[in-house]
Design brief:
Layout lengths: L10 E3 L5 E3 L6 E7 L3 E6 L8 E7 L8 E3 L5 E2 L8 E7 L6 E6 L18 E3 L3 E3 L16 E3 L12 E3 L7 E3 L5 E2 L9 E2 L14 E2 L8 E2 L2 E3 L8 E7 L1
C-alpha cells in the first residue's frame, strides 16, 4: 500500500490522518490601515486563523502658529514637532478580545498670533503607544531687528518593542524687516515635516503621517499656520 508523507513547515497530518495547515505558518494574510482620526475596535474573533500581529503606530504632528506682523515689520514662526513612533510583534494570546485603536489628529493651525495645536497620541490598546508632537510657538513679536524663536522639542518615545521619539520643529529667525526664515516642521518615522519659508507666506503642510507643520512668515498682515499630519495605526495580520 502506498503511503504519503508531508515534509513541510506549513502542513501537518493530525491524529485522524487529516492534512492540516500549521497555525501561524502562512505568513502575512491581511493589512488593516487606520488613518482617519478617531477610536476603533480591533476584534480578535473576526480573524479565527490569527496567530500574531505586527502593529505600527504613528503619533500625529504638531501644527504651526499663526503670524500677523505690523506693517513693514516681520514675524517668523517655528515649525511643529513630529509625532513619535512605536512598533511591536504581538502573539494572538497576548491580545484581548477587543483592543481599542486610537488614531491621533494633527495639531490645529494657529491663527492671528496664536500658537499651533499639539498632535494627538495614537495607540493600539495599551500595548503600543506613540505620543503626538507639540505645536509651534508664537513667542516672536513683530519687529525689524534681529530676533529668534527657539524650535519645538520632539516628543519622547512611547511604548513598543521598537520605539522612536518625534523630530523637533525647527527654530525661526528674523534678520530685519524684510528678511528671515521660518522653522521647518519636525520629521516622523512615517512622514515628513513642512518646509521652512524664506519669504512671506502661510505655514506649510507636512507629508505622509505624523509630520510637523512648517511655520509661516509675515512681513505685514496675517499668515495662518498649518495643521500637523494625522497619525496612523497599521495592523499586519499573520496566520
Amino acid at each position: 500500500m502506498a503511503r504519503a508523507c508531508v515534509c513541510s513547515d506549513r502542513l501537518t497530518v493530525n491524529a485522524s490522518g487529516e492534512l492540516c495547515v500549521i497555525p501561524g505558518s502562512l505568513g502575512l494574510r491581511q493589512i488593516i490601515v487606520y488613518d482617519d482620526p478617531g477610536v476603533y475596535q480591533f476584534q480578535k474573533a473576526s480573524y479565527p486563523w490569527l496567530a500574531r500581529v505586527r502593529v505600527r503606530v504613528q503619533g500625529a504632528g504638531g501644527g504651526s502658529g499663526g503670524a500677523n506682523a505690523a506693517s513693514n515689520q516681520l514675524i517668523a514662526r517655528p515649525g511643529g514637532a513630529g509625532g513619535s513612533y512605536g512598533e511591536s510583534l504581538i502573539n494572538v494570546g497576548t491580545l484581548g478580545a477587543s483592543e481599542a485603536v486610537t488614531v491621533g489628529a494633527g495639531g490645529a493651525a494657529g491663527t492671528g498670533n496664536n500658537a499651533g495645536g499639539a498632535g494627538g497620541s495614537s495607540s493600539f490598546g495599551g500595548l503600543v503607544i506613540a505620543p503626538g508632537g507639540d505645536g509651534g510657538t508664537a513667542n516672536m513679536i513683530s519687529g525689524t531687528t534681529l530676533g529668534t524663536a527657539t524650535g519645538v522639542p520632539g516628543p519622547s518615545a512611547g511604548s513598543g518593542q521598537i520605539r522612536e521619539g518625534g523630530g523637533a520643529g525647527g527654530g525661526a529667525i528674523r534678520l530685519n524687516a524684510t528678511e528671515g526664515m521660518s522653522g521647518q516642521g519636525g520629521e516622523s518615522m512615517l512622514g515628513h515635516g513642512g518646509f521652512a519659508r524664506g519669504g512671506a507666506g502661510a505655514g506649510t503642510n507636512p507629508r505622509g503621517y505624523g509630520g510637523g507643520a512648517g511655520g509661516p512668515l509675515s512681513t505685514g498682515g496675517a499668515m495662518n499656520g498649518e495643521a500637523g499630519g494625522n497619525g496612523v495605526v497599521i495592523v499586519e495580520l499573520y496566520g
